[in-house]
Amino acid sequence: MLDRWMLARLAGPVDRLARALVRRGVSADAVTLAGAAVGLAGSAVLAAGGSAGMALALMALGRLADGLDGAVARHTATTPRGAFLDIALDFLFYASVPLAFALRDPTANALAAAVLLAAFIGTGSTFLAYAIQAERLGLRSTRYPHKGFHYLGGLTEGTETLACFAAMCLWPSAFAVLAWGFAGLCLITIVTRLAAGWALPSSGAPR
Considering all CA atoms of the chain, what is the largest pairwise distance in Å, rounded to the nearest integer? Predict the structure, then answer.
């Protein structure tokens, strides 16, 4: 819901940083991989019972790289591999955070983490299934024209997810409450994406 608003405000600084990286010969894939490694390191810190503040800082750096890789690619060359890495590693990072909190305190967090992971499977699968059919039908997203494939929005997009993760890191004892609440918001996203998929043309793309 907030991604387009956030991306518009970050576009200028991100583009300037991307240009600087391109001048130094840094590739978009390198930025993607580095960002994923840093973000997953933040989850590992959480899982090991380390500082939630340090984990949040690492996650923030990882997400900055996630915004940079696309800008770097637009100044060099966009590739199917880059688009694949971007979304696949994003989903792995998103899954790692609830898992980390479950490992950090299984008694208090495991059930809520499992519910949130199930909600993430729902939002991710409906997102990717719609993108596949949109590609087959030749549909293009007007909201996110620079993405590597069709982006279908929802109530819980990347910005909302990261805000939730930040709150979890700042108040780790409230993880279960935050996880249950965000899973409920994800359910709304799942329903709206299922409705969007149902509204796709009934012919023109094979099953």
Answer: 53
